Amino acid sequence: MPKVVSIHSYRGGTGKSNFTANLATTIALQGHRVGVVDTDVPSPGIHNLFCLEPEQMDKTLNNYLWGETAIADTAYDVSDKIGLTDNGKLYLVPSSVKADDIARILKDGYDVKLMNDGFRSLVKGLELDYLFIDTHPGLSKETFLSIAISHVLILILRPDKQDYQGTAVTVDVARQLKVRKMLLAINKAHSKLNLEALKQKVEETYAETVAGVFPLSEDVVQLASEGVFCVNYPEHPVSQEFRKVAEQIMAG
Known about the structure:
Helix 8 (195-206) links the parallel strand 7 (182-189) and strand 8 (209-215). The relative contact order is 0.19. This protein has helices at residues 16-28, 46-49, 61-65, 99-108, 112-125, 141-149, 161-176, 195-206, 218-223, 229-232, 237-251, and strands spanning 3-8, 33-38, 76-77, 89-93, 130-134, 152-157, 182-189, 209-215. It has an 8-stranded mixed beta sheet, with helices on both faces. The N and C termini lie close together (11 Å). Helix 1 (16-28) crosses helix 11. It has 252 residues and is α/β, with parallel strands linked by helices. The protein contains 11 helices and 8 strands. It has a single domain, classed as Rossmann fold (3-Layer(aba) Sandwich), CATH 3.40.50. The chain is 43% helix and 18% strand.
């Protein structure tokens, strides 16, 4: 049974796309067939992590949403680009980075039901084991859709008052939408913080499981979104934390 996993945050700047790319890759490295859809149409960017250049993206999610192409034609096999050599496969459906395309989709919107149909078609057509949805930050009808259809929702937050308040709202919405499984991930935690105490505090506050705590890492910053961190630094503590989160996704 394929699993749909939405990665979301209430605010931008949490490292959501980086998190999505690393988690999806970690699971693909276990031999699974994984798809990633960049539904952050106003500010797409995850293609950079998979080393897919804009000039290589002749068809995007936008073209599908405008009825110009099948969604399967917008999926790019990026397995080789991230060094997947075994049975695992990773496909990316990017959003357009062209200014005119972004302006058009912001002005006209798109049919949310069509997006849902696209997810189903993608899972079936590519025989995916996992489909990751990289969402747009904040709450909107598009976000509600991806939360509602997800088997797993991962909410990313930083140890920051604005993030705490926004996450509380998002958790309430997710519960109203009866999301099947919700996990929290704390990202960019300062090294001076007691990470175990932080994890405990967040779990008590939201009454939800914290799947992983990721320290603010200079090594991650240094890579500067040019590639997937866990592939470049497989033994790094950050990569090990991604493996812990991946196990919780794959477990059930």
